[in-house]
């Protein structure tokens, strides 16, 4: 049996160096040019062949050299950062104005590079293949569907895929995972409400779209509170309101934008259909007009039972059974790994990085987010063990 945790601890300083470099130089969306090149250079140095997908995404492949069943397992990491100003005071704060790794993707990329290094070292001890998928644009439209369309899960065909995400709501040294739905689906929307503008002193000569918008915002919340089962979960968020130019002018138009989050396909279909009907009904009642655009967004992320069992077994071997926690409820956050999960049996789990003493308890997508870097070798060891167990045992 390979001591993966020891192997990962042996490269801990290298992992920290890579992660901090990525953290200092964040890139957004499909513009992860530097990050992608770092991944390619690392794989090239380790002698691991790779190819590009979605222009800037990378997929490395390590072929086991032991005779046996020809299975393929994939591991995925996302590479992109967020448009947030880094306000942490530390040696590795972002050097790029208005950009920051505020969701831990620098850690995900680093962990997968560490996995690549160790598994390549031991490729004579397993059969089959492991694909190392580095995805761009997870925070925006997702590189996953493009990579899938271009064949990242084929040639050789992936039989199972695993992903992880760091989380500040779980202590470093623990993971959490659950069977079934792990993350919600999303449907971003834009609502344009068209009225008739005029002088604020004469509202009777206008159709005030701000008043209509206020009623729309209140009413669409009743879809969740009164139409979706209280035993289910759904969230409708209006994140922005734009309308008007001055205190004494009633505008002609108000634009609302937001997102619908659901954890079942049935509720997803219901909520997207219902919001359009409700908005148009309210606007008709107020003599206004409405345009409702609802995007498809990310699907629900579903964890397959056997894949979760494999994650648990490996995590227990690395961390101890007491440190493998059941994720009680699905996260209402969305995750582009869901596209991969829709195609193959999969498991997606959360790696704890919280440490109050190190200030790594700040929420993701905030300007103070950081991770306890002790989690890096733990993530590497768990991922290595998952792959090794899958490619050496039935």
Automatic annotation (TrEMBL):
SUPFAM superfamilies named among the record's database cross-references: Bacterial exopeptidase dimerisation domain, Zn-dependent exopeptidases
Residues that, per the record, bind Mn(2+): 103, 105, 139, 165, 365
Domain of life assignment: Bacteria
Cofactor(s) annotated in UniProt: Mn(2+)
Alphabetical keyword list: Hydrolase, Manganese, Metal-binding
EC number: 3.-.-.-
InterPro entries registered for this protein in UniProt: Amidohydrolase (IPR017439), Bact_exopeptidase_dim_dom (IPR036264), Peptidase_M20 (IPR002933), Peptidase_M20_dimer (IPR011650)
Any single biological process term in GO: diaminopimelate biosynthetic process
Peptidase M20 dimerisation domain: residues covered: 189-279
Gene3D superfamilies: 3.30.70.360, Zn peptidases
PANTHER family, per the entry: METALLOPEPTIDASE, PUTATIVE (AFU_ORTHOLOGUE AFUA_6G09600)-RELATED (PTHR11014:SF63), PEPTIDASE M20 FAMILY MEMBER (PTHR11014)
Protein name: Putative hydrolase YxeP
Organism: Clostridium vincentii
Upper lineage: Bacteria, Bacillati, Bacillota, Clostridia, Eubacteriales
Gene: yxeP
């Amino acid at each position: 049996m390979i001591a993966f945790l020891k192997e990962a601890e042996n490269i801990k300083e290298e992992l920290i160096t890579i992660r901090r470099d990525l953290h200092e130089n964040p890139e957004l969306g499909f513009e992860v040019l530097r990050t992608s090149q770092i991944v390619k250079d690392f794989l090239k140095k380790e002698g691991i062949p790779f190819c590009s997908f979605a222009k800037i995404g990378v997929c490395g492949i390590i072929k086991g050299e032991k005779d046996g069943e020809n299975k393929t397992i994939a591991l995925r990491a996302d590479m992109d950062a967020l448009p947030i100003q880094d306000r942490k005071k530390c040696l590795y704060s972002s050097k790029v104005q208005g950009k920051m790794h505020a969701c831990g993707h620098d850690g995900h990329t680093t962990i997968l590079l560490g996995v690549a290094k160790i598994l390549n070292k031991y490729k004579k001890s397993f059969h089959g293949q492991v694909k190392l998928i580095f995805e761009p644009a997870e925070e925006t439209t997702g590189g996953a569907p493009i990579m899938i369309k271009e064949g990242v899960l084929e040639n050789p065909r992936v039989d199972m895929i695993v992903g992880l995400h760091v989380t500040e709501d779980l202590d470093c040294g623990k993971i959490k995972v659950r069977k079934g739905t792990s993350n919600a689906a999303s449907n971003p929307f834009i609502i344009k409400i068209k009225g008739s503008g005029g002088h604020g002193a004469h509202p009777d000569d206008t159709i005030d779209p701000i008043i209509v918008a206020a009623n729309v915002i209140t009413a669409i919340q009743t879809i969740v509170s009164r139409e979706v089962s209280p035993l289910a979960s759904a969230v409708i968020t209006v994140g922005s309101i734009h309308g008007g130019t001055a205190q004494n002018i009633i505008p002609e138009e108000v634009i609302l934008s937001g997102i619908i989050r659901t954890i079942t396909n049935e509720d997803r279909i219901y909520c997207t259909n219902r919001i359009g009907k409700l908005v148009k009904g309210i606007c008709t009642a107020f003599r206004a007009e409405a345009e409702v655009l609802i995007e498809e967004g990310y699907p629900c992320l579903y964890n397959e039972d056997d894949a979760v069992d494999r994650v648990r077994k490996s995590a227990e071997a690395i961390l101890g059974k007491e440190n493998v926690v059941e994720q009680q409820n699905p996260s209402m956050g969305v995750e582009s790994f869901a596209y991969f999960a829709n195609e193959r049996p999969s498991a997606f789990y959360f790696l704890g990085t919280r440490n109050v003493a190190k200030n790594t308890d700040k929420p993701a997508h905030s300007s103070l987010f950081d991770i306890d870097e002790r989690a890096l070798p733990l993530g590497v060891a768990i991922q290595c063990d998952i792959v090794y167990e899958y490619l050496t045992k039935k």
